[in-house]
Amino acid sequence: MIHQDAAPGSGRPRILLAEDDAAVRRSLQLLLQARGYDVRAHASGKTLLEDPLGTEAACLVADLQLDEVDGFEILSRLRSRGWQGPAVLITAYPTPDLEERAASRGFGAVIEKPFREGALGDTIARLLKAH
After folding, report:
1. Entry pTM
2. 53-68: pLDDT as tens digits
3. Hey, what domains does the chain have and what are their CATH numbers?
4. Which of 29, 83, 96, 98 could share a disulfide with 78, CB 3.0–4.6 Å?
5. Predicted confidence band at 10 (pLDDT cuts at 50, 70, 90)?
């Protein structure tokens, strides 16, 4: 599998985003674009996994609770295709053991919605730098 840190010709790292709430998805897309990322936003895990450029992303941001394919399953399937980028799990429904479960499944961070200003962008930048 080809892994590219940036969208071809743009020099901008590509972020895969899976968020089912249209308003949240659009605001996250605009926020991340303003921080210099090329964002491929999807309303479901299923459509994200059908994205032909999915394995070329620099980072994944996935909502935990999605119809059909949740955030854990998205990352698992991307990993099975050879994708090795960092991943961020976002959720409005944290549980006491969520961070531990997410880390054991390969997520580098868990961020609770609503987000603290700059939290997602700062987390992505930190994970990409460390990767």
Report:
1. 0.91
2. 999 999 999 999 999 9
3. 14-130 (3.40.50.2300)
4. 83
5. low
